[in-house]
């Protein structure tokens, strides 16, 4: 597979064309941003961990019938994916209160919800990814009604698979963000990444944060936390084989 011209550079990844118009190569960087790009930094080795972890989780999800853009891991940082048109919604599933949810409603972090919640943000950097409800997303034609139902079903299904996977690692899946895309035939699939950048992962025993909140909140030990969560995932994935 030929890595062609760079067609996009995001905050944490670069995207390259290939010789197949239906396939792209995603390349994971160590760059980290938070608070809509206001905080910037580098997490040494993060790109390697996020690439490996996201791919492993997408393979696990595929085994559970969740379609995704994932095709093949090419190297430490590079992965071959199906070209999709990203649906401009960030889909956030929460099992436990944290982050912007806790702030918005003035509640503590760590409240375990009776059932998971879903919310959407409109992917628009200039506007700071504002919260959006389903009616507004439909009104703006960001997504069709049928696609929205698929997105919700897939997102809650993904939550069940990931919750039990992380539980087997001694980790609580607090919340996470997903993105979906349309293949050239219109099929909606999971896209982007699932990693400690996009999930809140707490040690089930101690509550220690093993995710990007260590960077966002200057908690220290960021690199160690990424290495630890990857080691735990690898151990559980090894046992699963
Ligand atoms: N998240 C993300 N990208 C974003 C916003 C949120 O990956 O642009 C993830 C975040 O890591 C967390 C979940 O989505 O796991 C919920 O984040 P929240 O809305 O609480 O926002 P935050 O407090 O991270 O700003």
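^ Assign residues to that structure.
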């Amino acid at each position: 597979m030929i890595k062609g011209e760079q067609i996009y550079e995001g905050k944490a990844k670069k995207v390259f064309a290939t010789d197949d118009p239906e396939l792209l190569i995603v390349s994971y960087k160590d760059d980290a941003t938070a608070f809509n790009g206001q905080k910037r930094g580098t997490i040494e080795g993060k790109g390697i961990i996020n690439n490996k972890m996201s791919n492993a989780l997408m393979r696990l999800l595929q085994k559970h019938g969740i379609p995704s853009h994932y095709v093949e891991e090419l190297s430490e940082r590079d992965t071959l994916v199906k070209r999709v048109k990203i649906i401009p919604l960030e889909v956030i599933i929460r099992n436990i209160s944290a982050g912007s949810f806790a702030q918005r409603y003035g509640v503590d972090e760590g409240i375990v919800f009776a059932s998971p919640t879903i919310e959407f943000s409109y992917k628009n950097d200039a506007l700071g990814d504002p919260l959006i409800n389903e009616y507004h997303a439909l009104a703006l034609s960001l997504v069709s009604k049928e696609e929205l139902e698929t997105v919700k079903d897939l997102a809650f299904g993904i939550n069940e698979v990931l919750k039990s996977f992380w539980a087997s690692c001694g980790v609580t899946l607090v919340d996470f963000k997903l993105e979906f895309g349309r293949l050239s035939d219109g099929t909606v699939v999971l896209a982007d990444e699932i990693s400690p950048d996009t999930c809140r992962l707490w040690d089930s025993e101690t509550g220690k944060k093993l995710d990007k909140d260590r960077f966002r909140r200057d908690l220290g030990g960021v690199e160690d936390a990424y290495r630890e969560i990857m080691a735990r995932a690898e151990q559980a994935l090894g046992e699963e084989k």
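The two ends are 28 Å apart (CA to CA).
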